[in-house]
Design brief:
Length: 56
């Protein structure tokens, strides 16, 4: 059985040390989250309409 998990954030991955405070813990948590994941990184603040339909 597959589960789909969606995690969204507006914080860059390199800035998570400010949340977890321990660099090794932060690296382990991020590594665990993205191990079998697809990362969609959006660099624009607003996407044109219909952009995400290509990912379905």
């Amino acid at each position: 059985m597959e589960f789909i998990k969606v995690l969204t954030t507006n914080l860059e991955l390199g800035k998570y040390n400010g949340i977890f405070y321990v660099e090794k813990l932060t690296a382990a948590i991020i590594d665990h989250l993205i191990h079998h994941s697809f990362l969609l990184v959006f660099t624009e603040k607003k996407l044109p309409a219909g952009t995400l339909k290509h990912y379905k």
